[in-house]
Design brief:
The chain is of the alpha/beta class and 443 residues long. The chain has helices spanning 2-19, 26-38, 43-56, 60-72, 98-108, 127-131, 143-153, 166-178, 184-197, 218-234, 256-267, 273-289, 296-308, 311-322, 328-331, 358-368, 412-422, and strands at residues 86-90, 113-117, 155-159, 202-209, 238-245, 253-254, 341-346, 351-356, 384-387, 394-395, 400-406, 423-426, 436-441. α2 (26-38) crosses α8 and α5 (98-108) crosses α14 (311-322).
Length: 443
């Protein structure tokens, strides 16, 4: 009992110091993280500490220490035998299916892609959910299966194993339940701990900015990008952060199977301009960071070649088949899940699209069943939205500007109304939105 009292007092002292704006040592942060992971520190104390971080923040040294402790809570993969491995991550947004395009393209260019992805929550879609649109696709590979597939075909996209950074999973669940998610040091360390533990040598990050993203303004997005770059440098990783627009959905499709179909079309060379541009940019940066191209121009040429000659599409087909999915859907979208009903929304008058509220479209997709409110909720892979017009486009009266794929749920009508409300119309010409908002990178 005496030892327990000393331990509780020790934790309280750390909470109070952070609450009062002080800093913690690397050893003290490790004590908190490992203690909580092992069950020695109770939820209520770590919750208090996390709230103190939300209010007071952490400096760069503390954030790097938090990341290192989360990595040390489990195993760290050694991918050195595969050469230089580059990971790609997006902070999440509406219609963001970039990984489904970029990963096969980059792998087709000879750079190994070893990616551990997550599921969607709220209106931020998850890569694993989308990939499960391929019937039978396995997202639960063991570490041995992960490494074997990477060696065999040069690409693997699966869920994070419980052995990698388990402290992050525990901390995130606690943050989600206690209102302590929105703190840049906590967000940055969560993202980067998984990338470091998964064995990446470099990381290309897409930090979304806008109503359909977690970071609502450019200043916050820059702060998050700088924090992640600093963590990467502290741990010997090269990091590039692209800041990209999420004030309207990316591409045209929002919803799991619909986004997979759009990714396939993009790999066939028929994708929407914004998705193609972002995929080319991210893919080229991965090739440069992976030292498969000497500069961005050479890298872009290689990505374009993989788009034009079909090798990117072939690599997606190979990936799906390797993980047990129905690869026929890569060539015939009829093998993807389809909603039973499609509602067309038509323009009430001839006008230009002035704005599309990404958050409203995303919230509507959740109501349609394409997203989940809580972890573990089931989702409907069939439902979602396809936009026929984006900001700056002119739509004639009576022409469709969106189609809504519905499954006959009670909330369908309210979701359709929410999509209508997401569009703002203008009688005057409107400039298209700027997609790339900035870049922050290590050397």
């Amino acid at each position: 009992m005496r030892g327990l009292t000393r331990r509780l007092v020790r934790v309280v002292e750390l909470i109070e110091r952070k609450r009062d704006g002080g800093t913690l040592t690397t050893e003290e942060i490790d004590y908190l993280v490992q203690g909580y992971t092992k069950g020695d520190i109770p939820d209520y104390q770590l919750s208090a500490f996390l709230m103190a971080v939300v209010w007071r923040g952490m400096d760069a040294k503390e954030t790097a220490a938090l990341t290192a402790s989360m990595v040390a809570s489990g195993e760290r993969l050694d991918l050195s035998r595969f050469g230089r491995v580059v990971d790609k991550h997006s902070t999440g947004g509406v219609g963001d299916k970039t990984t489904l395009v970029v990963a096969p393209l980059v792998a087709a260019c000879g750079l190994p892609v070893a990616k551990m992805s997550g599921r969607g929550l709220g209106f931020s879609g998850g890569t694993l959910d989308k990939l499960e649109s391929f019937a039978g696709y396995r997202v639960d590979l063991t570490t041995a299966e992960f490494l074997a597939q990477l060696e065999r075909i040069g690409i693997v996209v699966t869920g994070q194993t419980k052995d990698l950074a388990p402290a992050d999973g525990l901390l995130y669940a606690l943050r989600d339940a206690t209102g302590t998610v929105p703190a840049i040091p906590l967000i940055a360390s969560s993202i980067m701990s998984k990338k470091i533990a998964a064995g990446a040598h470099a990381v290309v990050l897409d930090v979304k900015v806008g109503s359909g993203a977690f970071m609502k303004d450019l200043a916050s997005a820059r702060a998050l990008a700088r924090a992640m770059v600093a963590i990467g440098v502290a741990h010997g990783l090269a990091v590039t952060c692209e800041l990209t627009d999420m004030d309207q959905p990316l591409g045209r499709a929002v919803g799991n199977a619909l986004e997979v179909a759009e990714a396939i079309e993009t790999l066939r060379g028929r994708g929407p301009a914004d998705l193609v541009r972002l995929a080319r940019l991210a893919g080229a940066e991965m090739l440069v960071r992976g030292r498969k191209a000497r500069d961005a121009r050479t890298a872009l040429a290689r990505i374009d070649r993989a788009l034009a000659d079909g090798s990117g599409l072939a690599k997606l087909r190979e990936l799906v088949a390797a993980q047990g999915g129905d690869a026929r859907a890569v060539d015939d979208p009829r093998h993807l899940p389809h909603a039973p009903l499609v509602e067309r929304l038509v323009a009430p008058r001839t006008a230009f699209v002035g704005a599309i509220a990404a958050d409203r479209v995303g919230q509507a997709s959740v109501r349609l069943g394409a997203g989940r409110e809580r972890k573990g909720d089931p989702i409907d892979l069939r439902t979602g939205v396809v936009l026929h017009a984006k900001v700056g486009d002119r739509v004639e009266r009576g022409q469709p500007y969106a189609e809504v794929h519905v499954a006959g749920r009670p909330d369908d009508e309210s979701a359709i109304d929410q999509i209508r409300a997401a569009f703002r119309w203008s009688a005057r010409r409107v400039a298209p939105r700027r997609l790339i908002l900035g870049r922050i990178a290590s050397r």
